[in-house]
## 1
Amino acid sequence: MKIIRPSEIPKEVQHRPLFIGEVAMQALITQEMGETFLSSLRHWAPGARAKFHTHSSDQLLIITEGRGMITSEKETAAVGIGEIVFIPVGEKHWHGAMKDSSFAYIDIRARDSITTQIED
């Protein structure tokens, strides 16, 4: 058993082509720790978002801070603290912060999940 304390994990700013705006991550469960899934805490500055992408596994987002948007090809939803978003494998989507709010969530995916960026 391992107790994970996000307050003890440093935030790492993410500079990836997938992101628009300022995004930071705290790795909660890494490939070295678990055999089944990965988990991170992602922090989005107001207005920051991911570009359209897919994952090769289901994705679960547990909203922990602020207000954000989740958009798929079929719908757009505003989400806030305490809400949980399930994104099925292969669904084209993006997520990010509202323009007037920071946004954070716990991201849970399969250990071997691959993210494929669709939007340039």
## 2
Amino acid sequence: MTGKERAELRSEAHHLTPTVHVGQHGLTPSLVGALDDALRTRELVKVKLANKDEVKPKEMANSLATATNSAVVQVIGRTATLFRENPDLDKKRGDIPPWRR
């Protein structure tokens, strides 16, 4: 992902609310499944990370990205933004992106 693409996704993600929350149990298979579903339908997802001191937010975001085969767009505080393109979604020129729907 180029810097320009990442900057565009960051500006799009600014208005999103977190759809997946990492709780006290951390990375569980059900959490990874929920994040995978969100990425499949929306492509751009904000994740609220738990307040665990032993795991840094960037490390947690990288673990989530690896588990879901996605890319980390940004990490601000305890909120991470992940992106994974879904080629199966119908995209036409001029349509709104799936994360705005």
## 3
Amino acid sequence: MPHPTPDWHARARSAAINGNAFIDGRYVAAAAGATFDCVSPIDGRVLARVAATDAADVDLAVAAARCAFESGTWSRRAPRERKRVLLRFAALIERHAEELALLETLDMGKPIADSLAVDIPATVRCITWYAEAIDKLYDEVAPTGHDALALVTREPVGVVGAIVPWNFPLIMAAWKIGPALAAGNSFILKPSEKSPLTAIRIAALAAEAGIPDGVFNVLPGYGHTAGQALARHMDVDCIGFTGSTATGKRMLEYAGQSNLKRVWLECGGKSPNIILADCPDLDRAAEAAASAIFFNQGEMCSAGSRLIVEERVRDEVLEKVVAAGRRMPPGDPLDPATRLGAIVDEVQTGTVLGYIDVGRTEGAQLLCGGRRVREATGGCYVEPTVFDRVRPEMTIAREEIFGPVLAAITVRDAEEAVRIGNSLIYGLAAAVWTRDLTRAHRIARALRAGVVYVNCYDADDITTPFGGFKQSGTGRDKSLHAFDKYTELKTTWIDLS
């Protein structure tokens, strides 16, 4: 018998929300007693008062993490034992799926249907996958002569700090939690101040699963206080960061100012989605183009925010994309039928609307959208917006907007499309739509991006690496390659002569 659809509004009204930090196995207030309001973009109401941690709290969390690491209670536990604990952790997240999905939606405004169908399952899959992987990784024996034995082993890097963004709070955290904990590190998670609630909640689930005190810590707070203190701390061995390119550059500066800690960055994007005249299915390509920019309200680093269309099919493609956008009006994120939710907060809403104004001023043609809507709710909602006649030098074609705003650029041929696609500082994702397999391979090779989609967009699996070229970052999340970020290679040379 199917489960009844939850009354999400009733659950939202009765939700018990914890706003404390989690340090050394327990929930605590910030050392200074400071808090900030966690405001829902759905209707502007205050969800919780959240601990505003700072350098003093970072010191406490790092000390706890270091003590746990040196004790070996997790770092020297057998891989199969870490696996069992992490599988319990993933199972607890799955058991609390509806609670966590509600928190995710209340906190950052994404539709509850997406939180349930995308965010929570992807989080569970990620942690489960890394748990299952850790006892299947083998070390190496180097091909030396008979008078020596050289072992190449992976060891946990130590204390890992993870600074994650607000657009996919749990998924982005899981991409770092999974490999870092599986490898035996101690872990400190600094969620965005815009969306800290699920990170705080899963700390209790980690402890319930059996992750030892000090191994998993959560520090809500602002980037310029808690985030900076974590990135500059002399006893943090590694920072995994997802966020803007500008902030990513500061992470590198902080590493240089402190202990040269490893810094791994997944930063901004302005991804080109190229539709050529020989596209095998324009209906499918247009629907995918709309989803590539409007899913998650366009708040995706890999969003297909530049639609580069060959001239011969431009009018037909744009007509279909506009129609798809008009079928996705912003709605109540707690309604399971809603496809487009709220922008994360007033600041980001103002940023998105500001870029729309700049697009008009610089001469782009607004085909649809462009307005703030549902203002009577007290929330933050912007219509799906499509600009045509966009020139590559325009601001909306160059800068990451992080909202539901599509810039359509017309090109004469594939060569021009690739040149424009590669022309920016970013290189996170790209796509090409063509029926010619040889052309698809050639263009995929030519595009300077960490992920290239062919006749699709945003296809995804935990088994494949994700990350960028150029100023979109360094290192890779997901897949076995993520272990490279959270382990050190050690050579042990044994003389047998």
## 4
Amino acid sequence: MKLYPGTLNIRLTDLYAVPEGCARLEASEYGGSVGVSIVPCWVFGRRAFILRTDSNESGTGSHPRTVVEIASDVKLRDEYHLADGDEVFIEVEE
């Protein structure tokens, strides 16, 4: 899947921890500066991925562990007419 170049940040009511054994991209693999964990999920019935940088997972990044970044093939905010504060249901694959 070709991902839209941007994520939808979702604030959760509880802390989120990346599950052990999830897919990873190391910085050198994609030309970035940080490693990223990738967790498959569904949002609005659309295939998507939770992306979590190592620093965000450790609690030292730009987002607290109550925020997840969702990537998909479209700009989710525009596709589903989302505004700040809207509820979004994320189904994480096991």
